[in-house]
Amino acid sequence: KSHAVIPLHTADRDADILSPAESICPKLSNLREAAENSHDYKAFVTSNEYKRLRTFIDKELGKGTMTHDALDCIMTTVCTDRPLPAAIDDYGRNNTSTNLLQQIYESEIQKWSFHVTHNDGEYAKLAMGPLWSEILENIRPFINPDDRQEQPPPNRLALVSGHDTTILPLLVTLGPDVWDGQWPPYASMMIIEIHEIIDGKTDRNIFKSDFMFRLLMNGQALTSKIQGCPPDGDLCDVQILMDRVSPFATSDRDCNSHTQQHPAIQESKILLSTWGGVILVLLFTLASGLLGSLFTFYYMTRRLPCRKSSAYHVGNGISSYHDEFDGFQDEPEDVDGGENAQLKTVAALVE
């Protein structure tokens, strides 16, 4: 009996499309900066409430400790029933208005997601474009027979294993009302179902094509929150989804940054984005350091580091020297003046 083959696709981290990556798409940095320069963002980060929380964090937890990664670590600690730092160990003990951990959590979510939602999710659309392109590649063969070029037929189930920072921007791209402002919890699942109309009784004024879709987030239908979908149903014409997503669903994104960098800087970033480039830079750095050390040693001593100096007695309590190199000795020249000539040589070296 033959068994089904499940294709598994992976990607290097420097080419990952499952989360926003400004190192891969520099234009994302421009969009984030534009959001952070907006009036609403500045009003948020300069508000008394935000300053109060930041002061508390810097004092009790350490300045600069509360980053997105740190918040992720804190929430994993909560979800696995392990103890939190004493200063914020009040989760579930007070109501939301006085619960410090909840306040910090919501504040950091708002700060992180601000640029993702800004300007109708422009940042999220650019970041998630390649992933949406792959998702639509799985949908098109079912809704358009002309796209069925694969043999055997396309997979009926496509599973993408991503992150919380995958689900959140995906929801944002579907419209301003789809994401509820809450961080996706552990083991979250976002599902897009494609349904074919086969009963002939469906209202064609609402469902103009032969296919419908349903959007689920952790079992809750969100389809009605997408603009253009029926507000009182879980199903919506698939063409609305295609029209919403297709304009930015592409792997060929415009990622050119508006901030032009010197070509040498751009080439350096490309070089350092690979392990081979990092190793090459390290080897070059070590070689440069070694050559610099050799030059400095020779400049200061006028001899190579493989030459060893030793002393021998020449009389009257005065020591002279000779250099050894590969087993050969340089003896003092026999000149008139004998010991006096040798003494002048020693004095010159000591001075």
Report on the architecture of this protein.
The protein is α+β, with helices and mostly antiparallel strands and 351 residues long. It contains 10 helices and 7 strands. The protein has helices at 27-36, 39-45, 48-60, 68-79, 100-143, 164-173, 238-245, 263-272, 275-301, 339-350; strands at 190-196, 211-217, 220-221, 236-237, 308-315, 318-325, 328-329. The strands form 2 sheets. Strands 1, 2, 3 and 4 form a 4-stranded antiparallel sheet that branches. Helix 1 (27-36) packs across helix 5 (100-143) and helix 5 crosses helix 6. Residues 309-351 have low confidence and may be disordered.
Shape: globular
Low-confidence residue ranges: 309-351
Order of helices and strands: HHHHHHEEEEHHHEEEH
Alpha plus pi helix count: 10
Radius of gyration over all CA atoms, rounded? 34 Å
Distance between the termini: 92 Å
Oligomeric state, counting identical vs distinct chains: single chain
Percentage of residues in helical conformation: 40-55%
